[in-house]
Amino acid sequence: MERRHLMDHDQAVKSQVCEKYLLGELSPELRDAYEEHYFSCAECAIQLRTAAELIGASQQILPRTPAIGAKVPAPGGWFSWFKPWVAVPTFAALLLLLGYQSFVIVPKAKEQAASGAEQILFNSYPLRGVNTAGEDGRMLSIRPGEAFLLNFDFVPTRNFDSYIAQLQDGEGHTLLQLKIAGGNANREAHLPIPARMLHPGKYILAFYGDPGASGKIRSQNDAGRLPFTVEFGP
What we know:
By secondary structure, the chain is α/β, with parallel strands linked by helices.
């Protein structure tokens, strides 16, 4: 069996993994380890969100000017600037978060830097106490266009060496997917939710065992789910 690399917080900070992750300089093994680490580390999740906003702000303040005579490429959409990241095999939740934050949240944050930046960075909502057998679960009242951390206790119903988490909407469409190390079971977890991703309605955070870390979803490996409902508040 392949030996999995586990990353602790001190290692992530001392090795400046956040910066290397954003620059695409991590090996596939370290990238996977970091993505699994930030899932259970609120400090690292916030650090990545902050770095993403700074990157987006620099795009607004210092736009790139093409050289005279250079061919200007056609617009590629929100994710065009992040092509090196999107091309990596593991399109985890943070990559999606960075795309949304840089192109949707940051322009507004620039206009409201003094009053709104702290709220954009640090809002979080708990799912603790949700009955996995319930239909609706907890009601979350969020602001339209808000990016936030979804906090919950990751208590899988079955034991596996690794897991896959999926955020699904009421129609069963997968909005986010990421890997979770088995060592994060029975611990507090933090899932960054991109701005403008959630709208009023029902959602489920579903967990599946991932034997051998194959990355494949199998219904027979269902390891629990946390239902919740979203509404827009002031």
